[in-house]
């Protein structure tokens, strides 16, 4: 799989976490289990590895919610639809690159949540990246049925990564 992960380490504490390898693992597993390998040969995603101050500003700017959060995602859903149609029509060239979208993830909130939930920090980060990847693929959790579907997909991806189900508690 040709996924390219562009990471901006705005918060330097992320550098000590082997973040790049965890992001690759989360995205490769999620894309593979969603049967995206065939049409996403050359995929890229951009991640802002930040802190609570930055993610709060982004959350307020883009969602009108003036609070911190763990992860935000901005899918390129229009490109996903266009790219899938090109592939199904056999029009994709070997040079086509698909921009899956952008993610921001907060070190501070991830750390706090992993302590509060008694989860390994590294596993929690992979879970949040899987969650964000599913959003980039068009999944959401606005309705209870959508939440349940997304949760099941997350559990399946986490299992493939060798991570226990965090919803089991």
Binned, the helix content reads 40-55%
The helix/strand order is EHEHEHEHHH
> Helix count?
6
The description of the largest β-sheet is: 4 strands, mixed
| Range of strand content | 15-25%
CA radius of gyration is 16 Å
Which residues sit in consecutive blocks of at least 5 with pLDDT less than 50?
87-91
Q: Give me the secondary-structure category.
A: alpha/beta
Question: What can be said about this structure in brief?
Answer:
The protein has 169 residues and is α/β, with parallel strands linked by helices. It has 6 helices and 4 strands. A 4-stranded mixed β-sheet has the order 1-2-4-3, sandwiched between helices.
Keywords, please?
169 residues; alpha/beta; 4-stranded mixed β-sheet; 18% strand
